[in-house]
Amino acid sequence: MTVTVLTRVDCHLCEVAEAAVARICGELGVDWATQDVDADPELRAEYGDMVPVIQIDGRTHGYYRVEEERLRTALTR
Q: In terms of CATH architecture, what is 2-75?
């Protein structure tokens, strides 16, 4: 299982989401990474107005903010 946070440079909400995902994934031993939506035209077109976007194994889990309990539940199934 891998969590990806779609972000962009100078995005405060992205920084907050990254910190939450790093903490939660660290506690649960789950791999995670970030990806800049502005580096990929397709990602920018699809998600550019919704960052940060949280994905689990490539499937969208949520937008804008990390819902911690919901993310924990999804990662412990």
A: 3-Layer(aba) Sandwich (3.40)
